[in-house]
Amino acid sequence: MADVGGREHVGRRVIATVLRAGLSAATLMMAAGIVAKLASGDTTTPTLELGAFVPPRTPADGLLGVGVLTLVATPFVRVLALAVVWWRVHDRRFVLTALVVLALLAAATRLGGG
Fold it and tell me: 66-94: buried (b, 16+ CB within 10 Å) or exposed (e) per residue?
């Protein structure tokens, strides 16, 4: 297990990349949606319900919706990435923990109406 430190560093880099990419993508999509709404003169606010985004009333609402969903999905993706990293370093206990957390997040999302 001499390589654990190197793998841990790679794991941290992967998680940082996942979080950075999710935040960046969500920010860009929401900013584009706001700019599109302002450019069109639309001052209404879309409802923040999953069903309200499909189909969106306007392309701007679609961008805003996808941006919010990307922001919400980023923690799910992070936990999934952690499970993969832990699987690769053969830490089965943490893999199981990550899978339980994913199941709880999915159940909470489902029970919460999302």
Answer: bbbbbbeebeeebbebbbebbeebebeee
